[in-house]
Design brief:
The protein has 20 helices and no strands. It has 325 residues and is mainly alpha-helical.
Length: 325
């Protein structure tokens, strides 16, 4: 027998109010065209419910409506006494992406609860307003690791060059794995050449996590100054570093990368061989065709799959013949 599941009263109260609104509209008991309008008004009113969980759910639901009328009430909810409500309001404002929310969300970056600051940082990245850059830079030194990570991600989304040097310093200081990835992603996403020298040096970092994410970021920037160090990284003891280095070299249009990538097709690990095959498919060099054809017989299916896709990108009759086999 399946046990009866009892919903908490605060959920029942919120759903009942919304259901009444929908029913009244469908039965014609209120004016035509009420649907979305009445639903939004009801949710806005519910932001003042005595139960914090009801208010939090209402804030979250308002974000899904993307109705501009909800912006001011959600901004007011950023000052709710409950952190859950404030966080949900911040998330909803990020979903709506209204510029009126930028200053209040910047203020929310100073909220005493780290969960609110986390959501506010993410919301500012979603809105992509340049006014958020300096507060997000300051948040790179937040005591909470998730706030720092979300701030780095937001800066990478906004892509403002003012963030490059602070992100470079953050990469030197960061300990959290996810944040190292976030900072290197942000630097790669911004694509500023000032980051290249530090990232190239970071390929020698004793922390394998830094080397892994740095290789990917250098590929995103695509600066030829990184080629020699990325070639050297194809011999890194860590498999993921070698794979990421191969992928990065494939994004840099430089003739020096061909021979090292060809050698990487013989790496003992399939992940690296696949990365090398995919990278070679982006390079217009006749030497790679026969080698990719040979990779179609690799013992690992994933490598064969990547090699076939790479051959499809090369404008060479031999490649098309191999694909049709």
């Amino acid at each position: 027998m399946v046990p009866l599941r009892i919903r908490p009263f605060w959920q029942i109260r919120l759903w009942y109010a919304v259901l009444l609104s929908v029913c009244f509209c469908s039965l014609g008991l209120v004016s035509a065209g009420c649907g979305q309008s009445d639903y939004v008004r009801l949710l806005i009113a519910t932001l003042k419910d005595p139960d914090a969980r009801v208010r939090g759910n209402a804030a979250e639901a308002l974000g899904t409506t993307k109705d501009p009328r909800t912006v001011e009430p959600l901004i007011a909810a950023l000052k709710d006494p409950d952190a859950l409500v404030r966080g949900n309001a911040a998330g909803a404002l990020g979903t709506i992406k209204d510029p009126r929310a930028v200053k209040p969300l910047i203020a929310a970056m100073r909220d005493p609860d780290p969960s609110v600051r986390q959501v506010a940082a993410e919301a500012l990245g979603t809105i992509k307003d340049p006014r958020a850059v300096e507060p997000l830079i300051a948040a790179l030194k937040d005591p909470d690791a998730l706030v720092r990570g979300n701030a780095a991600g937001a800066l990478g989304t906004i892509k403002d060059p003012r963030a490059v040097e602070p992100l470079i310093h953050a990469l030197k200081d960061e300990d959290e794995d996810s944040n190292i990835r976030g900072v290197t992603y942000a630097l790669g996403s911004i694509g500023d050449s000032r980051a290249v020298e530090l990232l190239v040096a970071s390929l020698k970092d004793p922390d394998v996590r830094v080397r892994r994410y740095t290789a990917g970021a250098l590929g995103d920037i695509g600066d030829p100054r990184a080629v020699e160090r990325l070639i050297h990284a194809l011999k890194d003891p860590d498999t993921a570093v070698r794979c990421n280095a191969a992928g990065a070299l494939g994004k840099i249009n430089d003739p020096r990368v061909v021979e090292p990538l060809i050698a990487a097709l013989k790496d003992p690990y399939a992940m690296v061989r696949g990365g090398a095959a995919g990278a070679l498919g982006k390079i217009n060099d006749p030497r790679v065709v026969e080698l990719l054809i040979a990779a179609l017989k690799d013992p690992d299916r994933s490598v064969r799959h990547v090699a076939a896709g790479a051959l499809g990108k090369i404008n060479d009759p031999r490649a098309h013949t191999a694909e049709s086999r």
